[in-house]
Amino acid sequence: IPVDDFDLVIFGATGDLAHRKILPGLYRRFEAGQIPASSRIIGAARTEQDDAAFRDEAFRAICDHSSVDKDNPQLQEFLGLLGYVAIDARGEGGWQALKDRMRPGAVHAFYFSVAPALFGDIAERLAGHGIAHDDSRIVVEKPFGRDRASARALNATLAKHFHEDQIYRIDHYLGKETVQNLMAVRFANVLFEPLWNAQFIDHVQITVAETVGVAGRGSYYDKSGAIRDMVQNHMMQLLCLIAMEPPYHFDPDAVRDEKLKVIRALQPVEPADIVRGQYTGEGSDYLTDAEDPASRTESYVAMKVRISNWRWQGTPFYLRTGKKLRARTSEIAITFKEPPHSIFDDSGVPKANELVIRLQPNEGMNLKVMIKEPGPGGMRLVQVPLDMSFADALGADGADMPDAYERLIMDVIRGNQTLFMRGDEVEAAWAWTDPIIEAWEDGKRRPEPYDSGSSGPDEALRLMHRDNRRWREIR
Ligand code: BG6
């Protein structure tokens, strides 16, 4: 379904995110017939260039970062929607030119794909020059602050010029098809929800493992580390979607209210329940990639998280994420409790059911159930998978799944905030991670080294063994 006619301004249009995600994503939506041909996409950045030069730049970016057919006439049509205005976020030049380009009557959206230090300047000038109005939307990228105080300050800055329902804070994990599917699985089936609690679930494991390191973005990453870069946002969003109560409706505030309640119910993490790691190895060493030979920043973190509410009392959530691990895999594994009693004597002990939701790659679900081993040998139990991959079930191969950014940008134009973080949610998430980060920064310990290409530090295994549990293999 096409969205309404819009003018989208991308601040930071010559930057990496615009090249890799925003422009290719917009083109794919245009190809899919979702963007009206009357819409305008206006690049804004400091570089002095004209519309034609920006179109060339966008053409190269789209070809380099997506598998498009360069000769598809639609690509030229799409480039025709693009324009460019040179703007200095901290100066006054260019703003009037931008104002002149905005068409009355179209949906107006402003994408702040710039350093957060510029958010305030841009918001102020959009308002001061009368470019933004009450219906305009702004899109802001992570990192949204580096602690609660800075997130609060950013929220306050934006709030001077925009209402909360105009602000779209992106966490691209929420735009992933499989992440949205978590809500469908939970709330569109009767099968799971009655068992979705501490009475039946032993524990939950959330893994986001990456094979890439931080080379090339070491200067950003070294100031963040895995907790700020992945846990405070993506991992916590996944945790919320698994742990939240059913919202009364699939509506932005109803969903975000329930997520916020989960964040507020998180217990502080004990130092003994967290393991930090740093990858090391010949030719693939964090300390070289980060350009600080003494860095104590973690490229891996594993932690045990407890949620203090009726539903989850006694069921731990184990989170782990890291760079330079053995395989790229993101998944959520829910291990149910063992049956309370076995009627089968020595013919095999029933094992706990397990539901694994694979977020990427090979998106799908796997439910492990016990059955009788076929054959005449009597009642022998065996665990088998009920395996479903989206590609097989729906004929959707990875290439056809819209990228998270495509979905999210279209939601901005539609005015749907369900998959965006609300200001209070972001602040609450920082309020939980702040003490974890402070305790670490005050200490003198170094992260545990782990070999590049491994499953992470051994200490993370111990975190599980201590509780008589084990991590699923990363593969
Ligand atoms: C980003 C982080 O937000 O998410 C990166 O800054 C990380 O460090 C990336 O690599 C992971 O996203 P995806 O979509 O590749 O799983």
From TrEMBL:
Top EC class for this record: oxidoreductase
Glucose-6-phosphate dehydrogenase NAD-binding domain segment(s): 9-181
GO cellular component, one term: cytosol
GO terms classed as biological process: glucose metabolic process; pentose-phosphate shunt, oxidative branch
Keyword GTP-binding: no
Domain Glucose-6-phosphate dehydrogenase C-terminal per the UniProt entry, residue ranges: 183-472
Gene3D superfamilies recorded: Dihydrodipicolinate Reductase, domain 2, NAD(P)-binding Rossmann-like Domain
Pathway annotation: Carbohydrate degradation; pentose phosphate pathway; D-ribulose 5-phosphate from D-glucose 6-phosphate (oxidative stage): step 1/3
UniProt keyword NADP, yes or no: yes
Reaction(s) this enzyme catalyzes, per UniProt: D-glucose 6-phosphate + NADP(+) = 6-phospho-D-glucono-1,5-lactone + NADPH + H(+)
Record-given protein name: Glucose-6-phosphate 1-dehydrogenase
Source species of the chain: Paracoccus gahaiensis
Gene coding for it: zwf
